[in-house]
Structures are given as C-alpha cells and as structure tokens.
Amino acid sequence: MSLSCEPLVPLEGTSFISCCRHTSRGFFITLLCLFMLNIRLADLLTVNEVKESASTPTAMPCWQTEQFVVAGECTKCTQFEMKTQPACVRTGFTMKINCPESQKEEYKSCRSALMEETLFWRFEATMISLAILFAALVVLRQRALDRLASEKVRKQIESI
After folding, report:
1. How distant is the alpha carbon of residue 113 from its chain centre?
2. How many CB atoms lie within 10 A of CB 40?
3. Looking at the predicted structure, is the pLDDT value of residue 8 above 80?
4. In sequence order, what are the residues at sequence separation of 6 or more whose Cβ sits closer than 8 angstroms to the Cβ of residue 97?
5. What's residue 21's pLDDT?
6. Is the pLDDT of residue 114 over 60?
7. What's the 3-state SS for 91-143?
C-alpha cells in the first residue's frame, strides 16, 4: 500500500473518504502512539517501584501482618532518607506507623495529596494540549477538503 494519495480529487463514483483512507489509518496510528506515549509519561512521572529480589528474604513489616495506627502524616523524604530508608524509595513519601501488638514503630511508603494533584494537573495539561492540537488538525483538514471540492467544481464549470 502506498502512503501517498495519488488522485487528490477522487475519481467518479468514489468519495474523499475512500480516496484518502490511508491518511485516516495514519491518523489513528498517530493517535494510538500519542495515547501510548501519554500512558508512558504518566508512568514515568511517578517514581518507579523497587523490585525486591527473591534471593534475599526480608522480614514482613508489622503493618502488613497486624493492625496499625498512623502516628505521622505523609511527608516528603530527604535525599539522605531516599538512600537509607527502603520505604522512601518507592514513592518518595513516608508516614510513621505504630503497631500496638508488636510495639514496633516503622515507616510506610505513601502517596501525598500534593504529588497526586501535580500528576492530575500534568495529565490535564497534556489532554488540553492534545485537544488543541487535534482541533487545529481538523480545521486544517477541513480547509484542504473544502479547497479540493471548490477546485473540482471550478474544473467542472470550466469544462462546460
């Protein structure tokens, strides 16, 4: 299949849509790629999870095995804590947890409202930008189709 639309003016019995069917396929492929890129960017905006290796067994934190009480709110980790505390590495935020049964005090990874809000507004900005881009593409495509139609009418009038 060629990627160029040979007859810019459709042949008798065909329509503009069938003439440039490959451009709509290209448009949908482009749209799919942009959608996948948006999903990929959303994944990159959050800090990647650290995968624990199966060869080094670790003790289960108390908050996974028993009831706990939140002792401190979700706070951003410092650079030093990011390197030393495993709970900080996952999201960059931790909260202090008290486990009353085992009398332990631990830190648990959490997602802050500020981080969620930032991700939300980045997503909104991406969607608005894509909407503006595609609206402009629709307007340009409509102008091109109108120009082709008026040129076809002009040629038909000239041939009379």
Report:
1. 19
2. 10
3. no
4. 62, 63, 68, 69, 70, 71, 105, 106, 107, 108
5. 52
6. yes
7. HCEEEEEEECCCCEEEEEECCCHHHHHHHHHHHHHHHHHHHHHHHHHHHHHHH
Instruction: Name the one residue in this structure whose structure tokens are 């040629």.
Output: 155
Amino acid identity for residue 2 in this structure: S
Q: Any idea which of 14-23, 54-63, 92-101, 113-122 has the lowest mean pLDDT?
A: 14-23
Residue type, 106: E
Please answer whether residues 84 and 94 qualify as being in contact, where contact means their C-beta atoms are separated by less than 8 angstroms: no
152: its two tokens? 């076809």
State whether residue 88 is helix, strand or coil. Answer: helix
In the block, tokens 């120009």 appear at: 147
Give me the residue label for tokens 């482009």.
Answer: 30
Higher pLDDT, 28 or 139: 139
Under DSSP, the state recorded for 144 is H
Euclidean distance between CA atoms 147 and 86, whole angstroms:
62
Single-letter amino acid, residue 153: V
Q: State the pTM of this model.
A: 0.45
Contact 34, 130 (CB under 8 A): yes
